[in-house]
Specification:
With about 280 residues, this protein is an alpha/beta fold. The chain is built from eight helices and 15 strands.
């Protein structure tokens, strides 16, 4: 059996940030994820300046290249305006892989099936033994499913779903565009140009209304195609959703025998920043 002080389930930015901070403190840790890296992750990939600050890197340090936005072009029903901001966009397939390697933690591809709790820690699939357990597996995190689901159940009414695509395209519109409730769409959408000739587009909303969203798309998709004046408008309206993807941390009440943490995504809990994920190890050990 493989033993480690901290076992992190989930190799995305939350898990990697947690491992990175643990390794800085010389704490032994292992990351498990069911996928190999780099992995496909067609997310809008927004990150804030605070993310760079808390993870101690600059745009020049990031080898894959990122897009810098000083404003968003926002459409809210019939209202259109420019929203000043400072945001960056990355390709998650690249960023997640970079974060994982940068963490310096041991990584194993493994799909978690069972978690057993003992007085002195946890055993995962009779293969891994750990004193502390961190769940960073997103919406379907095994740590949440095994330990926290009954404590803090998630309502389907709060679930946000999306249809997202990312692909190479010689775009000419370098603005980041957001649409809310436009053309009878009961949700919102995005168009995000990215570095090295990629674009990310999507559409979605609350899970309980997603079928009506897709019906609306099929109904008025041809109208968008005929009325659009550029690729950004057309693609952004046809495929896209989700708010700025930050990583959120939900820590639960724990006793001396309950030490796991669950790092959640924006579909689960009110937003915090990646800084919270990187600050988590100070509460773990």
């Amino acid at each position: 059996m493989i033993q480690t002080e901290v076992l992190i389930i989930g190799g995305g930015p939350a898990g990697s940030a947690c491992a990175w901070r643990l390794k800085q403190a010389n704490v032994d840790c292992i990351i498990l994820d069911q996928h190999t890296f780099p992995r496909s992750k067609p997310c809008a990939g927004w990150i804030t300046p605070d993310v760079l600050k808390d993870l101690s890197f600059t745009p020049k340090d990031y080898q894959y290249g990122l897009t810098t936005f000083h404003s968003f072009q926002v459409s809210l029903r019939c209202l259109s305006f420019k929203l000043p901001t400072l945001q960056y966009a990355v390709r998650r397939c690249e960023f997640d892989y970079w974060m994982l390697r940068r963490s310096g933690a041991a990584f194993q591809q493994h799909k978690v099936k069972s978690i057993e709790r003992f007085t002195d820690g946890y055993v995962v699939d009779s293969m891994f033994s750990t004193r502390y357990l961190v769940g960073a597996g997103g919406t379907y995190c095994p740590v949440y499913r095994s330990i926290f689901k009954t404590i803090s159940p998630k309502s389907r009414q709060s679930l946000i779903v999306a249809q997202v695509e990312e692909f190479p395209y010689a775009y000419t519109d370098e603005r980041c565009r957001l649409w809310f409730f436009e053309d009878r769409l009961p949700g919102y959408s995005w168009y995000v140009p990215k570095a090295n000739g990629y674009v990310n587009v999507g559409v979605g909303g609350k899970a309980e209304r997603f079928n009506s969203i897709m019906t609306a798309l099929r109904t008025i998709g041809t109208v968008w195609l005929k009325s659009s004046t550029g690729w950004g408008w057309c693609a952004g309206m046809i495929i896209g959703l989700k708010r700025i993807p930050t990583t959120f941390v939900k820590t639960f009440q724990k006793s001396a025998r309950e030490t796991p943490f669950w790092l959640a995504t924006q579909r689960d809990w009110p937003p915090l920043t990646w800084a919270k994920a990187s600050a988590l190890p100070s509460r773990v050990g």
